[in-house]
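Work package 3, deliverable 3.1, input record:
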Amino acid sequence: MEPHVETEQRILNAAGEVFAERGFRDATVREICARAGANLAAINYHFGDKAALYGRVLDQARCWSDEHDRPILDAAGTPQDRLELFIRGMLNKLFDKGRPSWHTRLMSREMVEPTAAFDGLVDCTIRPKFDLLRGIVADLLGPPAPDPEDDRVILSAASVIGQCLHHHHCRHVTHRLLPGALDAPDLIPKLTDHILRFSLAGIAGLRQPGTTGAGRAAGGDR
Amino acid sequence: MEPHVETEQRILNAAGEVFAERGFRDATVREICARAGANLAAINYHFGDKAALYGRVLDQARCWSDEHDRPILDAAGTPQDRLELFIRGMLNKLFDKGRPSWHTRLMSREMVEPTAAFDGLVDCTIRPKFDLLRGIVADLLGPPAPDPEDDRVILSAASVIGQCLHHHHCRHVTHRLLPGALDAPDLIPKLTDHILRFSLAGIAGLRQPGTTGAGRAAGGDR
DNA sequence: TGGAGACTCAAACGTATGTTTCATACGCTT
DNA sequence: AAGCGTATGAAACATACGTTTGAGTCTCCA
């Protein structure tokens, strides 16, 4: 860590790790600086204060996330293919071992316990992905493809996202409940395969004209 | 708040709210005491310290949770009916407005950011419900019902739980993304209906002999 | 009535943390 | 070489927090 060069970037990286591990409040500027090999005063000199540093870290995570998603957003193909791409991309980001994997953990943290930067994060990062998924789901529910505001579309999109996020949000539970289950080397292909099949069948099950809010649930195919 | 009576219980209730709102670290004993109308020293007098108080709060949440789940655990009926009961019960607990709704938020918090009390919580509260769900899912995948350790059983159970928890874990996102979506008075019936139909169809889609971990993902029915 | 134990209260203590200060070293321009 | 703006370093400052202390108050029983 040669001195005098880019301590700002070193601090940003260290801050990302620490914020992701401990959350904004529990992260201490002392640990961040120690991990970055920088002096305590560096944070206030370069960023102003801890909150501003957090904002910059989130900005950086957002940029990386955006460029990571570009290929998925632009992809063409059948709705099934695009859904597979969506699921695989999401899981890859969630479980990306090594390198800067902290920005996903950071965003998970924001979802569960929002800070002031939350609204901007939703509008810039989450909403585009959600709209994309709604489009895919609408195509799968057709023809004719229902309106993206249709309840079946919104709820099915939530079901897909919920399945993906669950394995990340509740990873500590899974780790305790089924030791080793998350350490399998082929975890992501297996999860992708399952969630894709489960979701395609689930969406197909909503295709019949049956109104969703029928009240008397559980009719179906028993 | 008549003095001299049951300040212990008042503190437990206030602590539950504050811990659920802010998390263990961000919750301050001063706010808990203020909300309970008790003196600062009362916590150390009655419970020892903040960590012990947190443990007691978690114990209480666990008791309430257990007695709340009893009717669902003991229910008989077709697998479809039991799955509906499971989903509805889970959503009801997650979105139970009013009264002590904080114990669910507290457990969500433990899932995302475990404390020392986490392992006990998983073993006593989460594991039984998960095993119950595995049994239901196995029945739905049969006949013949596969082993509860089967990947399809475990992953499908995770899919059901993930869908339910998603609406709670990511409620802040949903609130920003689709304002008012979570305020509908018939929210729980609608969510129950959707998750049940989606999951029944999803599980049915896994029923064919096709091995789940085929490596070449996304074969199936495109 | 009196005293002992249970409980409450206001105040203070020690520590961890975000922030600030001021002195020092480096790179660049004149 | 002198001077100036930028960056770093060690130490101190102010605050918020968990915890402790010691006095005061109430209840109950002998």
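The CA atoms of residues 76 and 138 of chain A lie 15 Å apart.
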